[in-house]
Amino acid sequence: MWSLSKFLRLNIGSRLTKGNNSVQRRKCSALAKPEIEIPFSNGRSLTISTGKYARFADGCAVAQMGDTAVMVTAVSRNKAAQTNFMPLTVDYRQKAAAAGRIPTNFLRRELGPTEKEILTSRLIDRSVRPLFPDGYNCETQLMCNLLAVDSVYDPDIVSINAASAALSLSDIPWNGPVGAVRVGIVGTEVLINPTRRELADSSLNLIVTATKHNLVVMLEGAAENVLLPDFQKAVRTGVKEIYNIVLGIQRLSKMYGKMKRTSDPPAAIPEETVEAVRSLSEMRLREIFRDYSHDKLSRDEAVSELRANVIEKVAQDSANYNFVVDSFNKVVKEVFRSLIFEDSTRCDGRKLEQVRPISTQVDLYKPLHGSALFQRGQTQVFCTVALDSPDSAMRMDPVSILTGGVKEKNFFLHYEFPPYATNEIGRAGGAVAGRREMGHGALAEKGLRPVVPKDFPFTIRLTSEVLESNGSSSMASVCGGSMALMDAGVPVSSAAAGVAIGLVTKFKDNDTKHMEDYRILTDILGIEDYLGDMDFKLAGTKKGITALQADIKIPGLPLKIVMEALQQATEAKAFIIDIMEERIKFPRKHKDNWPVSERIEVPAHKRAKFLGLGGSNLKKLTAETGVQVSQLEENIFQFFGPNQSAVDEAKEYMEKQMEAPREPELEFGAIYTAKIVELRESGVMVTLYPGMTPCLLHNSQLDQRKISHPSALGLEEGQEIQVKFFGRDPVSGIIRLSRKVLQGPASQAIRDLNRTGSKR
């Protein structure tokens, strides 16, 4: 029997459910379709909808362009984390089902994130992170689920806009929205959100994220040596198109969005604590930052000693300890930035546009195909080039092939950042690179890819190991990588270099909407990146730009500053290339340890002899000479060897194989005289004609009786026996012979190919 309390609980619950459903029905009828279509100037459009999926999330939006659709959910905890930064996690996952594919791994399901997924997650993170309000430290997660992909539009742009809409629709405090577009250049025409085929013909692949007031939040691009004026025009065009996206998301949020939650502000630091810390540290900090003899380690050590001294004098208990630490960090940032405005001189004594001292070396170790050491200030990278066969090219996963159109890469750069580079202890290497290492490596690879010839006969692996790091190690990798490629003899079209540009701003009454003054810094240090407002990396040749990545830490950057940063970076890049060319100006013609690649044409009637049964000739060739053979076209093969003598030996071996006498054709069901050449536990190895590769006649086919060893039948090496031929195994190609089927009345003539080829 039910209890009265349970009956009342169920009855009241059903009433509430019916009431909520009626309210929901009325709401749905009033708001017919919770979606908005945003047109672009070229006739294409972006559709953003909400309210259909994942309604338990704090915010959810589905963005669609063409038939590519991405769902992004936003969830944030109510309780702030005990950190001094915004704990934001972005997870973008490419689902094979969205492309109508099945994963090719053993488990046939999505496993760890691919390089494409990690780089797209970083794009989204950098686009939305600057607009979270100061002091909001609640753990937040954005999950991007690829619903469908049409191989026309890349999902990354769709994902950024969906993430912006999800945060705007949610109750999570966020000072958005932002919009994002991809910009391409075909000829002289600037394209907005080009298709995959249009992008293949484009000299620019630029992603721009901006806010309503034409403030740039993020830039990421790769280019084929695009000139500076064309690049600046592309940025302006992209920002102009973003305006409609931001307005559309704002309208959608106003109609269907939730009211923003009120989060508890961080505990205010007592004014007496701030003043005590300032009085004890400000003058000393000014002395440290004006002492130009300091390097990275000595400067950090001096600041750390001062911090410990201030904490010892001011901190009274554990609660006050955190206030003192936060106050000290705030004073450090204020003093460091104010000195740049006062003196127009940086903490290492350089002027605002001055590049650190540069030194270079090439051809460091003879066994390496190419090597270079690039030192800029206290940033040092060691780059090496390894040349291998085309079979070593990096294969892409099926979904990345569908979205990016690239099946394999014959040039790739691996970036390594060991902990000793910053005088730390930590994990070294590993099978999977971290997100930061993967992002820096991808940026450096973009900076160098346009100068590497696309028809180069080898696969190129460029590694960049950071030995010392004090800012802009990824751009140092571009410089060192360019020199290593030339040292290896790779016919690059031009030298390439990279530089990082920083920014320090001053706002009126700490209001980020009203900028009073700013300073642009060329070739920034690590501390200038940490305490500054921008990390603007640009790579390219003297002629143009090949890669760009701008991380902006304030809620948007005016176009005027973006253009000035582009101009300043271009001038610094040309200056760095001049220094690099003093060491090596042109690619080497040839090195003694260069691998050799040759193409040969094999006539169709000789291809079977060339390959051998199941490719046996090629396998034997690789085992004996170290030369790899790959098929480029139907009759064109490529020999790749460590040196010329190995390739010559391989060519001689294959010529002998093709000149060998033609194998006799064996007739199915015919009886042949076979010669025993070896006794084994499992049977006997026999040949049917001179020069034949021995094949196994198994014990089970030797006699109608069961035997465990051929010697039980008195068989010996050199003895001749009659066998019947049953063709080849359709899978392995192994010849199938039997002796036991002949242990009865003879029904056919015996063919002896070991003697004269006549019937007996």
Description of the structure:
This protein is α+β, with helices and mostly antiparallel strands and about 750 residues long. It has 6 domains: about 1-30; about 35-255, 2-Layer Sandwich (Ribosomal Protein S5, domain 2), CATH 3.30.230; about 270-345, Polyribonucleotide nucleotidyltransferase, RNA-binding domain (Arc Repressor Mutant, subunit A), CATH 1.10.10.400; about 370-585, 2-Layer Sandwich (Ribosomal Protein S5, domain 2); about 595-660, K Homology domain, type 1 (Ribosomal Protein S8, Chain: A, domain 1), CATH 3.30.1370.10; about 670-750, Nucleic acid-binding proteins (OB fold (Dihydrolipoamide Acetyltransferase, E2P)), CATH 2.40.50.140. It has 16 helices and 31 strands. The strands form 6 sheets. Strands 7, 8, 9, 10, 18, 19, 20, 21 and 22 form a 9-stranded antiparallel β-sheet that branches. The chain has a 6-stranded mixed β-sheet with strand order 1-2-3-4-6-5. Strands 26, 27, 28, 29, 30 and 31 form a 6-stranded mixed β-sheet that branches. A hairpin with a 6-residue loop joins β29 and β30 (about 735-740). α2 (about 115-130) packs across α3 (about 155-170), α3 (about 155-170) runs parallel beside α5 (about 230-255) and α10 (about 435-450) crosses α11. The protein starts with a helix and ends in a 9-residue tail after the last strand. The model is unreliable at about 1-30 and about 755-760 (pLDDT under 50). GO terms for molecular function: 3'-5'-RNA exonuclease activity; polyribonucleotide nucleotidyltransferase activity; RNA binding. InterPro entries: ExoRNase_PH_dom1, ExoRNase_PH_dom2, ExoRNase_PH_dom2_sf, KH_dom, KH_dom_type_1, KH_dom_type_1_sf, NA-bd_OB-fold, PNPase. Keywords: Cytoplasm, Nucleotidyltransferase, RNA-binding, Transferase.
